[in-house]
From TrEMBL:
PROSITE patterns: HSP70_3 (PS01036). It comes from marine sediment metagenome. Keywords: ATP-binding, Nucleotide-binding. Residues 215-240 have a biased composition (Basic and acidic residues). Pfam families: HSP70. GO terms for molecular function: ATP binding; ATP-dependent protein folding chaperone. Signal peptide: none annotated. This is Molecular chaperone DnaK. Residues 211-245 are annotated as: Disordered. Coiled coil: none annotated.
């Protein structure tokens, strides 16, 4: 056995990097909960090492208050486990323990974008709905690609499931209304339903493994999103510009088809040439993105 006497200063020097590592998770927890340090009523310390004056000093500096000392830090986890056991057994009824979604949930939409319906750290059970539409004229079916993750592009997230809603009445793009609903119960089981508001037809899928990832895998996905934030922002802006260009092309061609007889031949030619140029530019942009090149 090694017996060694350390001064407080030396111990603090040796553990400084470990203590600093505890600050980031606290700041992240505050950001996720959309709270400020002043909103926190009590800070409970966990683990015997938190008895170090330096740890308590860092906590006080971060939260602006002395940490709560009414619970033995060596026993906090055991006390929490006992309370949770009592809740599950039905013996403790005056305490409500809430769980949250570890990662955001959404679906793939036009441009291979991941559109989130339920944000990370949303308290469960929860239910959210959004209305989407078709991307093409006379489209009679839509594919629902269910995703989990924090990245804005579908390919960078985890696939939870896929299903198809059929029987949509043929109509111009943008007219049909498809309501997608995410419903998560207290056990974390996800039910995703798509309903065509025009016909009432619906299809759904139940996902029981949305929480199957380990804590390390979830943390990795969150950190990966943070690391690629700037790159992802540029990709998102590019896809948005492509979608806007596509909408302009569609609307202009539709208007020209319906009211072309009211436009002079020279103007019509100029409009058609402009449309073709925009189509080529948009196609080049899509191609360079899809092949990993730069436009």
């Amino acid at each position: 056995h090694l017996s060694l006497t350390l001064s407080r200063a030396k111990l603090e020097q040796l553990t400084e990097d470990l203590i600093e590592k505890t600050v980031k998770p606290c700041e992240q927890a505050l950001a996720d909960a959309k709270l400020k340090p002043g909103d926190i009523k009590e800070v409970v310390l966990v683990g015997g090492q938190t008895r170090m004056p330096k740890v308590q000093e860092v906590v006080k500096k971060l939260f602006g208050k002395e940490p709560h000392k009414g619970v033995n830090p060596d026993e906090v986890v055991a006390v929490g486990a006992a309370i949770q056991g009592g809740v599950l057994a039905g013996e403790v009824k005056d305490i409500l323990l809430l769980d949250v979604t570890p990662l955001s949930l959404g679906i793939e939409t036009l441009g291979r974008v991941c559109t989130k319906l339920i944000e990370r750290n949303t308290t469960i059970p929860t239910k959210e709905s959004k209305v989407f539409t078709t991307a093409d004229d006379d489209q009679t079916a839509v594919d629902i690609h269910v995703l989990q993750g924090e990245r804005p592009m579908a390919v960078d997230n985890r696939t939870l499931g896929r299903f198809q809603l059929t029987g949509i009445r043929p109509a111009p793009r943008g007219v049909p209304q498809v309501e997608v609903t995410f419903d998560i119960d207290a056990n974390g089981i996800v039910n995703v339903k798509a309903k065509d508001k025009g016909t009432g037809k619906e299809q759904e899928i139940t996902i029981r493994e949305s929480g199957a990832l380990s804590s390390e895998e979830k943390d990795h996905m969150v950190k990966e999103a943070e690391q690629h934030a700037e790159e992802d922002k540029k990709k998102g802006e590019k896809i948005e510009a492509q979608n806007q260009a596509d909408n302009i092309i569609y609307a202009t061609e539709k208007t020209l088809k319906e009211h072309g007889d009211k436009v002079g031949e020279a103007d019509k030619k100029n409009i058609q040439e402009a449309i073709e140029e925009l189509k080529k530019a948009n196609l080049r942009s899509i191609w360079t993105y899809g092949t990993g090149g730069r436009s």
